[in-house]
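Supplementary Note 3. Input sequence used for the single-chain structure prediction.
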Amino acid sequence: MANKIIVQDTPITVIKQGTEDYICLTDMLQAKDGDFFVTDWLRNRNTLEYIGIWEKVYNPDFNYGEFATIRNQAGLNRFKISVKEFVTRTNAICLQAKAGRYGGTYAHKDIAFEFAMWISPEFKIFIVKEFQRLKEEEQKAIGWSAKRELSKINYHIHTDAVRANLIPNEVDAYHSSLIYAEEADVLNVALFGMTAKEWRDANPEKKGNMRDYATINQLICLSNLENLNAVFISDGIPQRERLRRLNQIAIRQMSILEEVENRKLLK
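The predicted structure, written as discrete structure tokens, is reproduced below.
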């Protein structure tokens, strides 16, 4: 998976390798004045010292003996080494030379931030800031997905209550689906203020349903409403009364959730 961040008008690719993030040094070079290559940075003794320490800490398979040979040549006018040769000789994991769609030279984020300093201190500050913003957005997306899955799981509890209490055995599949949809709309109206059909009519350009566009707070509330409506159905409470209660609960819970979120933002 690849993402793009924009740092001082320079688009930079970020890819995920396992659990680690790698940033494209080739893209970052576009922000440096003059004709430079990644090899110009890699031949620097300070660069090699930093990479060597990083690999020693994080890579048990790093060939430190071969690395020492390379490091000793740093500073000589004739010394030059490509990323591919460096990785092959030392078994380094902090650098990668990739071909194909996202081709270029990539570095683990720790190393990429040091590369950014080589470009300029200002560039390093801005790339760290943009990278942090990207990570925050990814965490929000993960949180949304988790809440969406939770609401889907809880919906099974809801449909089981509908099947056990509202659908007679003699009702066919078609009419059963209408009852399920009607009860789903009880939740939709209680939380979103409209039925599924009303949402589709108002948003013909959007794919999926209104729950796919819900906020994390709405999904939390929806999960709670599904459980509560299942209990209300089992208790034999009429639909009109259930809708009234669920709407009151939704208003109260959303108010609490939004208040908690605002307090977090103010800290």
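The mean pLDDT is 86. The chain has eleven helices and five strands.
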